[in-house]
Structure formats: C-alpha cells, structure tokens
C-alpha cells in the first residue's frame, strides 16, 4: 500500500508524468512499478484477455492512468488549446477501449455551467 500511495502522490504532483518536472521523476516512478510488480502474485495477467477463457481476466475492469512514459500520451499535454483531464483504459475482454478526456486550456474563462469536456474513445479487440 505504501508503494501504491507513493506512486499516486508522484502522479498527482507531476501531472501523471506530463508536468514540467515529470521526466526528472520518471526513474522513481519506474522503480515503484517494478517493486510492486515483484510483489504481485498473478502469474498470467493476460489470461482471458482475448475472451476465449472461461475465467474472467485479472485485467478486466476500468483502469485509470496515474503515470506514463509513453511519448504518444505525453504529446497530448503539448497542445496549446487542449489539456488532458483523465485517461482510462476499459478492459472488457476481448475489447480494450482507451478513453481520454480533454478540456480547453481557456476553460477557467468560460461560464462554470458550460460543459466543455471532449472525450476520445479508441477501441481494439485484444489478442493474447
């Protein structure tokens, strides 16, 4: 729980790796993930991901991104007009859907009752 808490705090402090100093904390985030990986009892995390297994997949559910080093995601924070809110991955074997919520950077200047969120959904059929 302590490692998870530290990773969550790191993600909040450096905007999931998007922040200005996120790259400086990349190694710490990777180290925390590796430490948690060693403690994980699951030996076949992708079991059932293709939807052919009778058992449910350990990955099934909705996952929220707390840290990233993926350049294709880090790119989103360089847009001058839009800012990243939440990024989720919804896993319902055999389908995986990436969900990215964006809002205009100028949102604070808009009326508070105006819904300005954009949602991007990209789905793919999973294979093991």
Helix content bin = 10-25%
Number of β-strand runs: 4
Rg: 17 Å
H and E string: HHEHEEE
Strand order of the largest sheet: 1-2-3-4
Taking all residues together, what is the mean pLDDT? 88
- What share of residues are in beta strands? 25-35%
SS-based class: alpha+beta
- Uncertain stretches of 5 or more adjacent residues: none
Question: In this structure, how is the largest beta sheet organized?
Answer: 4 strands, antiparallel
**Total number of domains:** 1
Give the number of helices: 3
Keywords: Plastid
Protein name: Plastid lipid-associated protein/fibrillin conserved domain-containing protein
InterPro entries: PAP/fibrillin_dom
Subcellular location: Plastid
Keywords:
globular, alpha+beta, 128 residues
């Amino acid at each position: 729980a302590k490692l998870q808490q530290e990773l969550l705090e790191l993600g909040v402090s450096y905007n999931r790796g998007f922040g200005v100093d996120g790259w400086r904390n990349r190694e710490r985030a990777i180290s925390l993930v590796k430490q948690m990986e060693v403690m994980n009892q699951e030996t076949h995390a992708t079991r059932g991901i293709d939807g052919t297994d009778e058992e449910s997949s350990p990955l099934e559910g909705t996952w929220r991104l707390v840290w990233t080093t993926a350049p294709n995601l880090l790119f989103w924070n360089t847009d001058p007009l839009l800012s990243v809110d939440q990024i989720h991955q919804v896993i319902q074997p055999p389908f995986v859907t990436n969900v990215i919520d964006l809002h205009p950077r100028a949102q604070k200047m808009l009326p508070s009752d105006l819904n300005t969120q954009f949602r991007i959904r990209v789905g793919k059929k999973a294979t093991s």
